[in-house]
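Run folding on both entries below.
>entry_1
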Amino acid sequence: MVGPRSLPPLARTLAGACTISFSAVWVKLATVAPTVSAFYRVFLGFLVLLLASQLRGDLRRISGRHLGLAILCGLFFALDLFSWHASIQYVGPGLATMLANFQVFVLTAFGLLVHGERIHPRFLLALPIAILGLCLIVGVHWQQLSAEYRTGIGFGLMTAVCYSGFLLILRTLQAEAREFSFFFNLMLISAASAFFLGLSMALGGDSFAIPDQRSWIALLSLGLFSQTIGWVLIANA
């Protein structure tokens, strides 16, 4: 039987990226509010990861610092998902995903300012090209854009910042607790994210009801493929 680890690392990375790339499509197909789709993504993913961790024998006691990092990581991921899902509703899945990918520049700036990392000349060349591309897509006359479109762009750029925070904390979590598998850590993060998003829904009066069969299928696919299988493929690579 062919398992994920039997594939070359590059193939696993590409398969995982392809799987996650459908997230925006599932969000758009689910006729629910951005917070609701984000909640079900992490909650359903948490259930799958909890079962996987149990079957793998990964469930064990953790330190307070490990739990704190997982909760903080979950908070950033919840903010990331909320911002991204909201951006999808305003500007569509394509532009929302492109804006979220600006996290590359946020992470590079963090590495430069905090860790003193060197910047490759190719990055300096890519930065103005990326900004020019963004201007060509959204236009340079900001005031002429609709309020909804401007809001969507704002949410998309906020996604990049929140996702960068999530990745930085995740890297710290993985580095400090190598005895725990990625299944287990992602399960903790998903649980924390589900808590924060569920709390936001409860305080905001959003309904947990899923309106129709299409939304059920989209949300189940979001939790299973985007939150679980895609991440596991990339982590194993």
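>entry_2
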Amino acid sequence: ESTVMEMYEANDKGAGIAWRDKGLVHWRKGLDEGEAVRAALSTELPYVMHFRTPSSGTSTLPGVCHPFPITAQVELNLEGATKGWTLFHNGFWPNWKEKIIDYAIKSGKKIPTGSWSDSRGLAWVAYNWGLGALELIDEKVLVFGPDEDDIELYGDKWVNYEFSPGKRVLVSNEHWKSWS
């Protein structure tokens, strides 16, 4: 509980969670601190959580919190389920707007409507060009799918963090620790 609270306080523009149940990946996002704590305490492992600080030039609306379903429209629903993958991202993808427009023009694909962030753009790229495209973008990304082994990490320097004796979680960074 205290670890989730620390993470939220350092990245307080919304949280999201994804978990598996009955062959689907379910998600909720746009969570406030209390909702994030309750979700962490009540969700069976494995699950993935993300605490958001928006990148410069991106929307701050709750639907732009992570995760994003890796689908054609990269929907902004605050909750849902998919038979496919969801995407979480930590970092800032430089020049993402120009790259998304360039990809759309060159491929003839229409850009989905709604609020955008570099992370939603990464999910759109992953849908259109496959998860392997994430290897080429050099961003810290986690994709979470419906099967037991469906967790893929991209980028380096993921941290195996011990939050209490014998209890470990994988985190994308430890910047949140300086807030406590």
